[in-house]
Amino acid sequence: MQSREDEALARAAVDALTGQLALAPKPGLPDPRDLAARTTRVDHRALRWSAKALTPGLAAMAAAARRTGEPTPVLRAELGAIGRCTEHSVALAGGGHRGALWALGLLVAAAALDPRAGAKDVAATAKRIAAHPDRRAPRRPSRGSSISAKYGAAGARGEAKAGFPHVRRALDTLATTRATGATETQARLDALLTVMSTLQDTELLHAVGPLGLRQVQAGARGVLEAGGTATPAGAEALAAFDTDLHTRAWSPRGSAGLLAGALFLDSLPVGSLARVA
């Protein structure tokens, strides 16, 4: 049975995902400007709608973790089963968010195991859950795992098994950028670019190969090295980078999902979330 805390965690995770969707300009990624474009209007609205379809599955993951009480192989298998059912529900609602579901599901479950834990401790617990194999998973390799094997990239599973290093870097960037007096939007965009600058995004590797991935990473670093999005030079570099990726139709979707994970951890502890709920 789900508790108020389970539901609050799920809503916080979905809020993090929709908060990421609301950012603009996001280089190569859907953002609210797409609503003005006839050709992409449906895509962005479908992403927002399907993000909300994650809520029941994420709440079930939190409840499973709370019921199990430890980051065991049994919990890992149950999270995998819930995740596959949730993917089906999300597909019916318009699709998308598969990578975000993997990251948010592990982080929500880890947060449910210890509602008093801070962000970095939650990431460490998620690492312990991800270390267990999902023995009920389909034997056929996913596209992401195939690309990871081909290019030696960590991929989504490697990111989780390492304790979400890019999520932790995004959290550090959020704190650092906020401390300079930047707006929340600027802090979040800088966090996204921090992830994008080093992530071995398997979606990009599949679409454009290693050279394209390195070009995207260099573009993200260029914005940060220009001073970040809060500076005139950084904002100008961001606009050029955004135009370039949208023109090429290159979409670093893996970075978006990990930013959502960072925004979720940034919203903890769950005690305050439950009181709000």
Features:
277 residues, mainly alpha, 14 helices, 72% helix
What do these coordinates show?
- The chain has 277 residues and is an all-alpha fold.
- The chain has 14 helices and no strands.
- The protein has helices at residues 4-21, 41-52, 55-68, 73-92, 98-113, 119-130, 143-151, 155-161, 165-179, 184-198, 202-225, 232-248, 253-266, 270-276.
- It is globular and about 50 Å long.
- The model is unreliable at 37-42 (pLDDT under 50).
3D shape: globular
The total count of strands amounts to 0
Strand content: under 5%
User: Uncertain segments of ≥5 residues (pLDDT<50)?
Assistant: 37-42
Please identify the structural class as seen in this structure.
mainly alpha
Helix content: over 70%
Largest sheet data: none
- Rounded radius of gyration (Å): 18 Å
Report, as a whole number of angstroms, the end-to-end distance. Answer: 17 Å
Mean pLDDT across every amino acid position: 88
Please work out how many helical segments DSSP would assign: 14
Order of helices and strands: HHHHHHHHHHHHHH
Draw up the topology in text.
Elements: H1 4-21, H2 41-52, H3 55-68, H4 73-92, H5 98-113, H6 119-130, H7 143-151, H8 155-161, H9 165-179, H10 184-198, H11 202-225, H12 232-248, H13 253-266, H14 270-276
Helix pairs in contact: 1-2, 1-3, 1-5, 1-13, 1-14, 3-4, 3-5, 4-5, 5-6, 5-13, 7-11, 9-10, 9-13, 10-11, 10-13, 11-12
